[in-house]
Amino acid sequence: MRGENKQRVLVVDDERVNRTVLSAVLKDENQVILAKNGEQALERLAIDAEIDLILLDVLMPDMDGYEVLRRIKANDATKDIPVIFITALNTMGDEEHGLNLGACDYIGKPFSPAIVKARVSNLLRFVRQRKLLETLAGRDGLTEIPNRRAFDTALEQEIGRSQRSGQPVSLAMLDIDYFKQFNDHYGHAQGDEVLKAVARVLTGALRRPADMVARYGGEEFVFILPDTDVRGGLEVAEAARQVIESMAIPHAASAIGPHVSVSIGGVTAIGDVSHAPGLLRRADEQLYKAKQKGRNRVHWDGVIAAE
């Protein structure tokens, strides 16, 4: 396989012999990046946005594989990269713990090169297909709503239409309150279920075919409401917030209440609409104010919707 088409695999193991063997097994079909400890692995991930899969040793000095995985999953830029644990720990409890933290698979030591190659190949095939489908469909793979790419395109179109028509366009950003703490407490599988539930609520809150909701990244969602003034935007956002709160999804790690809640920041522009990054920045500022004022609320261009 030509180098430019190879998928990128990060191998993290403190034992040189294991890194050497895994690299030899995988290098013909993949581009292999090596890290000898957790800190080095996180540094590699910080500078390389194209890594497709991580093979991660559990038992490492200073920072073990569990902590490395927690940090990977806590970072929006890396949380969706699949991780395979390679470890001598082989009890059901160890495997369950790793899977709850977000690992995709376990390979026991001493490992079989043929098994490693087969499992890596199968998972990378899935990664390639997922990325292709998301790009072609403009859909987020987890929630099945539009992804950020589709949102960016739609926002530019709606801004242009608003400039031509002089009609308002409203934009809102939503963030799940204390979502990192939720994942740490309940596990990433449960966190994914919350993301899907929030996506369903937001989709149900849309009133017209031109309205749009998308997953912007991590626990952040955005929605566009064309031809919608401040009052209309507030009504949609507040209705969504209330429905999410009424689902009463337990969140014992939240600092503001016993259930999952969301904060929403919105902005309405009329006539001379600013370009997309400017509108997004204004919505993000309102989201920040909603969080400052206690979370679980809507803040819309200086107007606060009551809890």
From TrEMBL:
Could you provide one GO biological process annotation from this protein's UniProt record? cell adhesion involved in single-species biofilm formation
Where would I find the GGDEF domain in this sequence?
Answer: 167-303
**So what EC number does this one have?**
2.7.7.65
Query: Which reaction is catalysed here?
Result: 2 GTP = 3',3'-c-di-GMP + 2 diphosphate
MF terms per GO, please?
diguanylate cyclase activity
Q: Which domain of life is it from?
A: Bacteria
Domain Response regulatory positions: 8-124
State the SMART domains in the record.
GGDEF, REC
The UniProt keywords, alphabetically, are: Phosphoprotein
Which top class of enzyme applies to this chain?
transferase
Q: Which SUPFAM superfamilies match?
A: CheY-like, Nucleotide cyclase
Q: Which residues carry this modification: 4-aspartylphosphate?
A: 57
Q: What cellular component GO annotations does this protein have?
A: plasma membrane
Q: What is this protein called?
A: diguanylate cyclase
Native species of this protein?
A: Formivibrio citricus
